[in-house]
Structure formats: structure tokens, C-alpha cells
Specification:
The complex is a heterodimer of chains A (about 210) and B (about 80). Chain A is an all-alpha fold and about 210 residues long. Chain A contains 10 helices and no strands. Chain A is globular, with a radius of gyration of 20 Å. With about 80 residues, chain B is an all-alpha fold. Chain B contains 3 helices and no strands. The radius of gyration of chain B is 17 Å and the shape is elongated. The chains are: A mainly alpha (about 210), B mainly alpha (about 80). At the A-B interface, helix 2, helix 4, helix 7, helix 8 and helix 10 of A face helix 1 and helix 3 of B.
Chain lengths: ~210, ~80
């Protein structure tokens, strides 16, 4: 897998020295681990991915003078590693376990009435200036909490699609599920996430 | 045929993942015109994507503040 851009390696560039700064390295590692653990079920796997991404980064660190550029690039490598791991898990993931959440239909169905129209209290309201929220640290806590309350398989698919920005065909192939399975699971994830954000952030204080 | 909200929201979500046909779009538009709930839902699909993209990007770019996004208790 060709994850790292190639570059000339050279040891005493500014970015290379960032990577030998223990405090910077430890902070970076912690951030990467947190990111990886959101998307991988297994701590050991997440730690391996972070380790490999850091090693990969060291090889090409000379290309980056600024810490922020280096960081962006290290995370790009990490994302690729995570996507790789999802691909490798393909054989071991039981596709049926991914889809065995039919019992949740009740939960989703309660959002709608018998004819499939919004139940009285569930009708989505308008969010005012929603993208202003991303500047608010507390908003991210709400977002992470909502994400962690999704059923695990839905959360994982949502993150593969929206964080890793994988194409749907690639996700289906990797996990050996059909596109309609994928669409319905993403739909459920979005329904729940939307509802959670509306109740705990956008309409907070109005009820 | 008139679409209900469950079908409309399903399609609004799928529109984030695949091309929807002209016919689907026409039926959807008819529903959304009359339904403020689904209209809001449709806008929120785009917002969710924007939020998720920002989240992933900030995790990668955020500099000196604590951790990627503060708390560390979201891992399972």
C-alpha cells in the first residue's frame, strides 16, 4: 500500500526536529490515538496504526517545515492506515453481525407515525447558523457523545464514510455488504445523530 | 404517488451517497415543498457532512489545545 508520499530524506530539517521533541511527539501520539480509537474497535490495533503512521512520518519528515503541515500529513498517513486495517478486517468481519440490528427498527419507527409521517414531537426543526457550532469546544463534546451513542456498526460506517471519506463502493467491497445495506445503515446513523444533536445542542434550552 | 416522510428522509440520506434519479428528485421535491420537517432534515444532511469533515480535519490539524477535541472519554 502506497501511503506515504515520497520525498528526499534529510535529518536536520525543522520538522524532523519536531519529531525528536518528546513533548510534541507525545502530544501528537495522544491525539492520533484518540482519533484512531474512535474508528477501530481494538486498542492494540489502534496503537499499531498510530505507531506505523509515526514511523512512516519520520521517514519523510524533511518535507515539512511547519508543525501544522507535519501534523496534517501524519494524520493523512494515519487515515490511510486505518482504511487499510478496515480492508484487512474484511475477511474477519462477519457481515451478518454488521447488519443484525433489526431490533433497532422500533427505535427508528417511533420517529414516524403509522403512515410514515413525522411523529408530532419528532419533526426536525430549523437549526440556526449550524456551522458556527464548529468553533465551539463544547459542541465537539456533544458531537462525540452523540457519536458514541450510535450502535457501533452504524458509528463505524458513518466514520468510514464521513471521516475517512471512503467511496460507498469501497466500503461495500471492504465489508462485503450490499449498497442498500450500507445506505440503510448510514440513514439510521444520520437519523440518530441528527436527532441527538438537535436535542442536545441546537434546541438546547428550548425545552 | 405521494411520498411519506420516512421515504423522503431515506432518499435525502441516500442523496449523500449516490446519484438520485430525475424521477426520484421530482417526487422528493414535491414532498419537501410541503413538509418543513423534511426540508430541515435535508439541510441537516449537508450540515452533518460539514461537521464531520471539520471534525476529522481539525483532529488532524488542531495545534496546541488539549487533545484532538478536549475530552478523552469517548473511546469505547
Amino acid at each position: 500500500m502506497n501511503t506515504e508520499p515520497t520525498s528526499v530524506s534529510e535529518s536536520n530539517s525543522p520538522a524532523a526536529s519536531h519529531l525528536t521533541d518528546p513533548a510534541f511527539l507525545e502530544e501528537l501520539r495522544a491525539q492520533m490515538l484518540k482519533f484512531a480509537r474512535l474508528q477501530l474497535p481494538d486498542v492494540a490495533l489502534a496503537e499499531d496504526a498510530v505507531q506505523e503512521a509515526l514511523i512512516g512520518a519520520l521517514k519523510n519528515a524533511a518535507s515539512f517545515g511547519r508543525r501544522s503541515a507535519l501534523k496534517t500529513w501524519v494524520f493523512a498517513i494515519l487515515k490511510n492506515k486505518i482504511a487499510d486495517l478496515h480492508r484487512k478486517r474484511q475477511r474477519t468481519v462477519d457481515a451478518s453481525s454488521l447488519l443484525s440490528d433489526d431490533d433497532e427498527d422500533d427505535d427508528i419507527n417511533s420517529l414516524f407515525d403509522k403512515k410514515g409521517f413525522w411523529a408530532v414531537d419528532e419533526r426536525p426543526t430549523a437549526w440556526s447558523q449550524p456551522m458556527d457550532s464548529v468553533k465551539n469546544e463544547h459542541f465537539w463534546r456533544v458531537f462525540e457523545t452523540c457519536l458514541s451513542h450510535l450502535p457501533e456498526n452504524q458509528a463505524r460506517l458513518f466514520m468510514m464514510r464521513e471521516f475517512l471519506e471512503l467511496e460507498t463502493a469501497e466500503i461495500c467491497e471492504t465489508l462485503d455488504i450490499t449498497s442498500s445495506n450500507l445506505y440503510v445503515l448510514l440513514y439510521r446513523a444520520r437519523l440518530r445523530l441528527r436527532e441527538c444533536l438537535e436535542n442536545h445542542w441546537f434546541n438546547e434550552g428550548e425545552r | 404517488m405521494m411520498m411519506n416522510c420516512q421515504q423522503a428522509t431515506r432518499l435525502l440520506s441516500e442523496a449523500m451517497d449516490r446519484e438520485v434519479s430525475l424521477q426520484e428528485r421530482a417526487v422528493l421535491k414535491l414532498h419537501v415543498m410541503m413538509c418543513s420537517g423534511c426540508r430541515n432534515f435535508g439541510k441537516q444532511m449537508g450540515t452533518l457532512r460539514g461537521i464531520a469533515t471539520t471534525y476529522a480535519k481539525d483532529s488532524a490539524e488542531e495545534g496546541s489545545s488539549e487533545g484532538a477535541h478536549g475530552t478523552s472519554d469517548t473511546t469505547r
